[in-house]
TrEMBL record:
Residues 12-124 form the NADH:ubiquinone oxidoreductase 30kDa subunit domain. Pfam families: Complex1_30kDa (PF00329), Complex1_49kDa (PF00346). PANTHER family: NADH DEHYDROGENASE [UBIQUINONE] IRON-SULFUR PROTEIN 2, MITOCHONDRIAL (PTHR11993:SF10), NADH-UBIQUINONE OXIDOREDUCTASE 49 KDA SUBUNIT (PTHR11993). This is NADH-quinone oxidoreductase subunit C/D. Residues 278-447, 449-523 form the NADH-quinone oxidoreductase subunit D domain. It comes from Prevotella herbatica. NDH-1 is composed of 13 different subunits. Subunits NuoB, CD, E, F, and G constitute the peripheral sector of the complex. It catalyses: a quinone + NADH + 5 H(+)(in) = a quinol + NAD(+) + 4 H(+)(out). It is found in: Cell inner membrane. The keyword Oxidoreductase does not apply.
Amino acid sequence: MKLNNIELNFDNFASEMAKLKNEKHFDYLVTIIGEDFGEEGLGCIYILENTDTHERCSAKTIGKKVGDDVVIPTTLNLWNAANLLEREVFDFLGIKFLGHPDMRRLFLRTDFTGYPLRKDFDESPENNKFPVTDEPESDFTTEWNLDRSGNLVATQHRLFDEDDFVVNMGPNHPSMHGVLRLQTIVDGETIKGVYPHLGYIHRGMEKMCESMTYPQTLALTDRLNYLCAMMQRHALVGVVEEGMGIELSDRILYIRTIMDELQRINNHLLFLGTCAQDLSALTAFLYCMRDREHVLNVMEETTGGRLIQNYYRIGGLQDDIDPNFVQNTKTLCKYLRPMVQEYMDVFGDNVITHQRLEGVGPMGLDDCINYALTGPAGRAAGWHNDVRKNHPYGVYDKVKFDEITLTGADSMARYMVHIKEVYQSLNIIEQLIDNIPEGEFYIKQKPIIKVPEGQWFFSVEGGAGEFGVYLDSHGDKSPYRLKMRPMGLTLTGAFDKMLRGQKIADLVATGAAIDFVIPDIDR
């Protein structure tokens, strides 16, 4: 969508955002984009959605300068998803959100100097030497507010009480699915609170994109959630194509939709396997990995890749589909259908599975929306959040498929959503595979791609939730600002809510059922 921002100033920002939430029912905070707008100053763009009508809007505000600092009122009182989103903006741009009770860096070390996404950030190696000491840690965090004289005042809050017992889950624990650290406060086996620590593999992709041409940025999406490489690249090429006004052939749209669904099956098979493995059920993992190989074989014959899929280009596809692709895809669909029931027989319907997942990591519908728990995790609580239905792209508006929603609102329901979505992906593929139209697989572009001035946001339904890309172009061959909305960041931000009062073993089970991938979060 092309952004037509609602312009808000510092004085009316809090009241107008409250009206958008409470009166106009924009109850889903899609993302917060922090940006250095040059002469305008530092500010944020908020993308919001009305979950009843699926209408979207964007609001922009420029922060108020207070001495050397820039401040914006927090929206955490309106959307709990703002917790980590505002901390991310503070981390990279230094904007302090007034009233946010936990203004700590999120991805970078606490002793990192400067704010990398500011345009005046000094990137020279001598000013960015990697620290060789352990990261300093504190049991306190800071809340910033303005006093009556307009001065910035800091209030210290304790993260942990003196008698709190804190256990670190990760960053090297195998069930964390990568280098994620969850600082967990426990009372015996009962969880009292969870503080996520991110950024162990942060690579600064959004900053890198500002010095890359548009085709060069495409390689980065495959290195995020490598199980959703097709969908994530689809979002990036989609936002560029929308900005440039490129009209794609039906052949391109059909092939992209099929590839997206093959990639979704690939993602869900690994999810179903690792969910079982995290609960010590190795057989189910081996079954899923066995069948995932068949999916990768079908994709590889066209894309040449298995984990990294360098297939979508700005304007179409890298190459046409392999001559055997249609037949092999039909054979794959026929093979996979009975296999999904096999996963249920060996693991999903096991009495131990039900005991480990039912009632574990609960999150009701209203909380799922408030915490932006998108994807299968939110649909398990009945939230109709499928981007393919609400904001169709590709040819999703031309195929019949069911949006899987359940009401269990727990880890078992999340597992079952993935099971049922594999069947729906097969339904989509089977409707399209025999009807791929003739036409161009690539719409030729100029040697140097430039996007006209403007701001756009394009979303896709990834394997674990909504993945979106925001683009601010000044008409150059490189983006002025490119922001990725990861699937896993808001999922991680909901751990504290889901796990309070649960047991330590339930943390592992909940993490298994949430389906997050660390490179997607860290970027």
